[in-house]
Amino acid sequence: MKLVMAIIKPFKLDEVREALTPLGIQGLTVSEVKGFGRQKGQTEIYRGAEYVVNFLPKVKLEVAVNDDMVDRVVEAIQTAANTGKIGDGKIFVLDLQKAVRIRTGEADLEAL
């Protein structure tokens, strides 16, 4: 099992969810986060004053998947979240050692 974690632009969330649904993804976790990458924030103008926003709003998705689904899930996220502009985000794939459904006690793939 793998945990696919993606940091994307907030307005791309619905497109990514719609891209994952046909793959059979039945659940995902979404968190509102802030961060920066190569763009190192951005300059904004508010009431005529210029200021720097160091941390940009992003959305973090976490999806637990079977090993054979990883490439399709990563490709779906990458395609749906892509704007072609700086700050599109990153996708990370981590090993997931165990998953347990609290209600039933089902473990690993059955818990997904």
UniProtKB/TrEMBL annotation:
GO terms for biological process: regulation of nitrogen utilization. Keywords: Nitrogen fixation, Nucleotide-binding, Phosphoprotein. GO terms for molecular function: ATP binding; enzyme regulator activity. InterPro entries: N-reg_PII, N-reg_PII-like_a/b, N-reg_PII/ATP_PRibTrfase_C, N-reg_PII_CS, N-reg_PII_urydylation_site. The modification O-UMP-tyrosine is found at residue 51. SMART domains: P-II. GO terms for cellular component: cytosol. It holds the Pfam family P-II. Homotrimer. Belongs to the P(II) protein family. This is Nitrogen regulatory protein P-II. It comes from Caenispirillum salinarum AK4. The lineage of its organism: Bacteria, Pseudomonadati, Pseudomonadota, Alphaproteobacteria, Rhodospirillales.
